[in-house]
User: Fold DUF1524 domain-containing protein from marine sediment metagenome.
Amino acid sequence: VDIWKKIIEKVKNLGKDEDADAIKAWLRSQYAENIRERKRGAVPLDFDKIGTEFHRWVRDNHEKLGLNRSDDFYDFINKDLEFYTNNFIKIRNAAEKLTSGLECIFYNAIFAFTLQYPLLLAPLKKSDNEETISTKMKLVSSYIDIVIARRIWNFKSIAYSNMQYAMFLIMKEIRLKDIPELSNLLYKRLSEENINFKSNKNFRLHQQNKFYVHQLLARITEYIEVNSGLPSRFKEYIAEGKERYEIEHIWANHPERHSDEFSHPADFAEYRNRMGRASFIT
Assistant:
């Protein structure tokens, strides 16, 4: 009991409800075998029940969890719970602060993509050393980062309800995988995906996606600067407040100046809002 309290207290230091979130992420990552079907009247299954009543789910599934003797419960708390909550804390810290090697966790968290937590825990094994754990987290968070960017580029939703089924399938597929297999699986998934940067040649700024375009511009700008030997200014680019950076069009809003290129002002406006014709200004 003392060890349980100690573990939970450590997670609670992250903030309100973080202890419950950590346990849900762990149980989903390692034990959820099914999820509610995407049709009317479908009943909640493992993934859903863990999210709403994980205490009851553990009691109802104690055999699936291998909890048959007192020693099993001891290991469940002292080994499994401690290992996965410690790594949940590592992930949450990376979500709050840019961390070398785990930057994509921070980028994903900007979009409030909470589905990344069980996915990041899924391939981890208690026998993994710190280097292996960090490599697995880097691979999974990079995969999620690419998926999010591709969906934004194609005007697709990244909301929880739209993403949870696909992310659940990935979570199951990468569970307890070693680095080579994990890397190959994620690469294969990305290669097979029909939503990519080639599938939309007309990505542009509009009233509903300003936040997303701002983030993409920040990432592109940071990438160019860092690879040119300059320090990262990403947090400066995404900061709120009076001195915040704003999206600025490279072309002034004067379609008459481009009448030789565009026969109609609407065509000019569409091109003016494209990604290559926007930059930052403060």
Summary: The mean pLDDT is 93. Strands lie at 246-249, 278-281. The two ends are 54 Å apart (CA to CA).
